[in-house]
Amino acid sequence: MTIAADPSTLRDEIAARLDTARKRTQRLTDCLDEDELLRQHSPLMSPLVWDLAHVANQEELWLLRGVGGRDPMHPEIDPLYDAFEHPRAKRPTLPLLPPGEARSYAHEVRGRVLDLLERVSFSTGQLVEHGFAFGMIAQHEQQHDETMLATHQLRKGSPVLRAQAPEPAPADVLRLPAEVFVPGGIFTMGTSTEPWALDNERPAHPVDVPPFYLDTTPVTNAAYIGFIEARGYDDQRLWSQAGWEYRQKADLAAPLFWERGGAGQWLRRRFGITEPVPAAEPVMHVSWYEADAYARWAGRRLPSEAEWEKAARFDQASGRSRRYPWGDAEPTPARANLGQHHLQPAPAGSYPQGAAPSGARQLIGDVWEWTASDFRPYPGFVAYPYREYSEVFFGTDYKVLRGGAFSADPVACRGTFRNWDFPIRRQIFSGFRTARDSDLA
Ligand code: AVJ
Ligand code: FE
Predict the structure, then answer these.
(1) How far is the CA of 261 from the centre of ligand 2 (A)?
(2) Which of 86, 143, 420 has most ligand 1 atoms within 8 Å of CB, for mutation?
(3) Among 12, 180, 326, 398, which one has the highest count of C-beta atoms within 10 angstroms of its own C-beta?
(4) Which string of DSSP letters, residue by residue, matches 413-438?
(5) Pairwise CA distance, residues 269 & 259, whole Å
(6) Using a 6 Å CB cutoff, which residues line ligand 1?
């Protein structure tokens, strides 16, 4: 988000970002009947009608109450939509607002927010400076839109979501080197200036990263099939201890949503349609444990989070960290596969216009990329505006994912953006690329 200096342009930008999020929420919910919205499609997910009202409830909480100082509209429903009161598995048993009421609640909140936006001054404190709280809420709705897309992927039944396929890979993919070199040295990680960056991306701080090599593109389905056919899932030596335990317990044998077809072919289910696994596409729906085992099989390792960010942002020529791999300008459809315009990743090597100075491609968009790193605070971290956004998740339970996927919106994706999940998770749009040390150290 490039923030406009003058308040009236900022108002327009905020309204547009909120509207994009709402249209996406509607696209993901208007296509299903009441029963499908109320049903829990997987114990991993909330019923879609919960996400719908939760998004509205957070918007009411942070914008109407937090910024606008209004009284709660329906205080009795607050606990229902507090993510910390009720785990996802329990949400279907709650007296949730039925779809019609959830929609009108969201509509009413939004109307009042747009009124507030007309009158708000962006200079009355940290919450509204550069429109931060509005940006946070647009990001929050988009993050739930991504979660709702994962719910669609998990649901059985007739397909309702369709989108255009991405372009074929550009001609130069055959000449791309397998890996790029990132020289050692200090770079600036995180940000203190990106106006809508969330608390966990802050502050900017120097990190010394030894030289390393990184895959030019995410690992493809074809490469991953190599790991499967080499019996990587059966070779305990390739797995971490926790990874092997989980591989045994969950009987992992391939990415989630994959099945064997005839004649050695692999098939996958994607938004209700079964199709051959496309060889050139980045692999997706793998857990951190699988990514870690694959990397070991390939004689490599996952990149640390700092390595990933340096490869994505650091411009050796200027010594600066960019906002995005290609520079400081906003994402466009020519630079990155974001925003649910395509409902799948583009072939590895796509988006030459989105390449990083290191030469790596698709660091933003296509698939979230698992990193080797635990989700931890940066030095100087301050929880803002609430501890439950990031701080309560810090520690060794979660691994960091970077870069965003086709499922993520540009408003909630940038070179500094940090996502996190449990290392067993596979229903998310997760892939990875691998790295290795350089002997130049
Ligand atoms: C950043 C994607 C891990 O979905 O749990 C949504 C985002 N936080 N509502 C999540 C979030 C509160 C969060 N992730
Ligand atoms: Fe939420």
Answers:
(1) 38
(2) 143
(3) 326
(4) --TT-EEEE-TT--SS-EE---EEE-
(5) 8
(6) 140, 143, 147, 419-420
Give backbone dihedrals phi and psi of 431, rounded to 5 degrees, phi first.
Answer: -130, -155
Are 189 and 377 in contact by the 8 Å Cβ rule? The answer is: no
* Confidence at residue 440, expressed as pLDDT on a 0 to 100 scale: 66
Q: How many CA atoms lie within 13 A of 336 on its CB side?
A: 34
CA 2 to chain centre: 20
- Backbone conformation region of residue 257, classed left if phi is above 0, alpha if psi is from -120 to 50, else beta: left
Interval between CA 19 and ligand 1 midpoint (Å) = 20
What pLDDT, in 10s, does the model give residues 33-67? 999 999 999 999 999 999 999 999 999 999 999 99
Contact 24, 77 (CB under 8 A): no
Q: How far is the CA of 83 from the centre of ligand 2 (A)?
A: 7
| H helix intervals, 288-422 | 288-297, 305-313
Contact, 195 vs 131, CB < 8 A? yes
Identify the burial level of 196 via C-beta atoms within 10 angstroms of its C-beta, where 0-12 means exposed, 13-18 middle and 19 or more buried: buried
> How far is ligand 1, taken at its centre, from the CA of residue 341, in Å?
21
Whether 290 contacts 244, CB under 8 Å: no
**Residue 202, token pair as written in the block:** 């802050």
Question: What is this structure's pTM?
Answer: 0.97
* CA pair distance 409, 341, nearest whole angstrom: 10
- pLDDT > 70 fraction of the chain, expressed in percent and rounded: 99
In this predicted model, what pLDDT tens digit does every residue of 328-383 receive, in sequence order?
999 999 999 999 999 999 999 999 999 999 999 999 999 999 999 999 999 999 99
Residues 284 and 282: their CA atoms lie apart, in Å, by 6
Look-up: residue for tokens 């900017």?
A: 204
